[in-house]
Amino acid sequence: MLKLYDSLSKKNKPFVSLHGNRVYMFVCGITPYDSPHIGHARAYVFYDVLAKYLKYKGYNVFYLQNVTDVDDKIIARALESGVKAGEVSSKYFAEYREVMGKLKVDSVTLYAKSTDYISEIIDLIKKLIKKGYAYPSDGSVYFRVNKFEKFGELSGQIMEKLEEGASIEPDDAKEDQKDFVLWKGYKENEPYWDSPWGRGRPGWHIEDTAIAMCYFREHYDIHGGGVDLIFPHHEAEIAQAEAITDVHPFVNYWMHIGMLNIRGEKMSKSLKNFITVKDLLNKYPPEVVRFFMINNEHLKPLEFSFEAMDTAKVSHEKLVRLRNSLSTVDFDSEFDAELQREMDHAEERFFEAMDNDLSVREGFAAIFTVLPKINKALSDMHGGREQYNNFHDFLNRVNLITDIFPEEDRGYSEAGRIGTLIDSLNQYREELREKKRYEESDRIRSILEKSNISIEDTKKKTKWNKR
Ligand SMILES: [Zn+2]
């Protein structure tokens, strides 16, 4: 049975969905003010695998991701570059979708932009004011943290610590420095919407709560994000939602993925160790990036380095080669019971690991344990074809969940490289034939045929087959 680690109860809890076959899953999305970085890749590839595993287990997953398309950072970027805030967010959101598409992150049901939910946000703030949890002050509206007793339950922050942290940027409009903003009063050059408290724009925390409640109401299954969002963001989300609905906990599984570090340091522009997803995809195939991002313990920080990426590439290629060899087994020897036991064990261990809070690394480890044994049996031409077909089928199921195998060889596996080579030789042959240099083109044909590659010239194209 699937268990997920819930950061609120700090337990690995058996997964029981609230609505039978339906799973409601919300993951905090990006603030599109800059190019997505590799930390984004780690988080969103992981949640993509979670959604795909739930789907694999037969659930219908409504995966909702918000887009914080109005924010201080976007506004600052817009002012810097002399464009409208909306242009900045559209540009970087488009880049986000593009790189996520390349990374095969395709399980999100709906990307919800905050600015499309202003009326829902205003409604929530009105309710919070009515219940005494919020107050307008100086054109803005704040959440009264002291009134919500459970504040700090998720992060374990004690109130004194909060006051320390909050006093960094004192705000005279607040009753208490711990209070956080729900609605920001209008400032010049900022985008604004009309509200009962005058012109302004929503605060970050309330946007997510309004969007999640719009689709999932007062109680839903999974809320995910990075550990950096636990405080204050998720603490604020809990306070806002539960203050309105009195349903506790409003999310059954709070999931938080560890940060991605570079040489032990947090990635940041100021440290000049900022790597974009685009840059990484220029150096590595998307499947290798996916493999690297999930082949680790997701609750812990992930150390990124190009050496680690290269190691991941080598391991990944072993898996790709194994799957390719399994699809082209051209012998059928006696059933190998010992090999079968090993194969079954690997499959069992893989799914056990996935059920244990998506321990993807453990799952891959199970495959890597049996991999050399299968390769040896294949080269010795041991074992029955059906055994190999079944393991190939298992790897295809692994792929449904992890999406780490290329749909077509991108030229980095052995088979892919040979294919590319044959294609270019054939292209050259076609050019020679067009110039009626048949003697030379026939020589290439005979060289290929000596390597057991048969050539068939059709009107449109030259086809080739391995014999
Ligand atoms: Zn959020």
Give an overview in words.
The protein has 467 residues and is of the alpha/beta class. It has 3 domains: 3-257, HUPs (Rossmann fold); 313-402; 414-466, no CATH class. It is 48% helix and 16% strand. The chain has helices spanning 38-56, 72-81, 85-102, 118-130, 159-166, 204-216, 230-245, 277-283, 286-294, 306-327, 337-355, 360-379, 385-402, 414-434, 438-450; strands spanning 3-6, 11-14, 22-27, 60-67, 110-113, 134-137, 140-143, 180-185, 200-202, 220-226, 251-257, 260-262, 265-266, 302-304, 453-457, 462-466. The strands form 5 sheets. The protein has a 5-stranded parallel β-sheet, sandwiched between helices. Strands 6-7-8-9 form a 4-stranded antiparallel β-sheet. The longest helix is centred in the last third of the chain and has 22 residues, at 306-327. It is elongated. The protein binds zinc ion (ZN).
Range of strand content? 15-25%
Helix content: 40-55%
- Give a quick account of the main beta sheet: strands, pairing sense, barrel closure: 5 strands, parallel
CATH fold call of the largest domain: Rossmann fold
Topology:
Layout: E1 3-6, E2 11-14, E3 22-27, H1 38-56, E4 60-67, H2 72-81, H3 85-102, E5 110-113, H4 118-130, E6 134-137, E7 140-143, H5 159-166, E8 180-185, E9 200-202, H6 204-216, E10 220-226, H7 230-245, E11 251-257, E12 260-262, E13 265-266, H8 277-283, H9 286-294, E14 302-304, H10 306-327, H11 337-355, H12 360-379, H13 385-402, H14 414-434, H15 438-450, E15 453-457, E16 462-466
Parallel strand pairs: 3-4, 3-10, 4-5, 10-11, 12-14
Antiparallel strand pairs: 1-2, 6-7, 7-8, 8-9, 12-13, 15-16
Helix pairs in contact: 1-9, 2-3, 4-6, 6-7, 9-10, 10-12, 11-12, 14-15
Bound molecules: zinc ion.
